[in-house]
Amino acid sequence: MEKKASPTVIIMAVVVTLAVIAGIAWMVWASIAPKQADLTADQEIVSHEGHDHADPTKTSAQAAAQAVMGAAYSWQPAHFETPLDGLLGVSDRLTEELAEQMEIAATDPNHVVANEWDTWAKNGDVISAATETTNEEIRDDLSKVTVLVTQNVLTSQGDVTPYSQFEVTVDAVATTGQSKQEMTWLVQRFAITNVIF
After folding, report:
1. Torsion sign (Cα): 142, 58, 40, 79
2. Domain 55-195 adopts which CATH fold?
3. Most buried residue, 29, 103, 109, 137, by CB count within 10 Å?
């Protein structure tokens, strides 16, 4: 007498088979799809259903200023050696001169860090910076952007504590790529101009 498989066993077999097929398909796709890291800077993956999306942090001085200030003032003390590590992570969005200045400053043993840095590092706290632009003046390929930065401490226990809020004046410069139509905004200099708290 033959034993028939129960409907539950059949359904489980179908689910497992589909999962295996999906896994194989994904592995094949992942092995042949181009990866952003494998491309040169000029070969970004930009195709989306027949139309291209420009990176707004490259084509807008405001977006570039916001992104760079967000990185500059978002800190992970448990993983960063200095507060400048966040800014150095986006050094491709800085002019060459500013990037070099920040690299030198990061190695300066007298570089100023927040008094709470060691406590934040020990506790695994993270400082998150939200940014918004409040003003922009553009003259040809130069832009002066005012960015409002609001920092909050995100504790490892899940608490959010306001830390500081200030305005930063950011000077950005437009650079052109291989074609004159490829314009990228880079941060040339920045300074805190108004501390709110």
Report:
1. positive
2. Nuclear Transport Factor 2; Chain: A, (3.10.450)
3. 103
Residues 18-38 pLDDT 10s:
666 766 766 666 656 555 455
What pTM, to 2 d.p., does this model score? 0.70
SS3 content of the chain, % helix, strand, coil (to 5): 40, 30, 30
Structure tokens at 111: 């570089």
Residue 62 to residue 42: CA distance in whole angstroms: 22
* Residue 162 · residue 152 · CB < 8 Å: yes
DSSP H or E stretch at residue 12: helix 7-32
Tokens standing for 21?
């097929």
For 143-184, the pLDDT digits (tens) are: 999 999 999 999 999 999 999 999 999 999 998 766 556 779
The residue extents of the domains of the chain are 7-35, 55-195
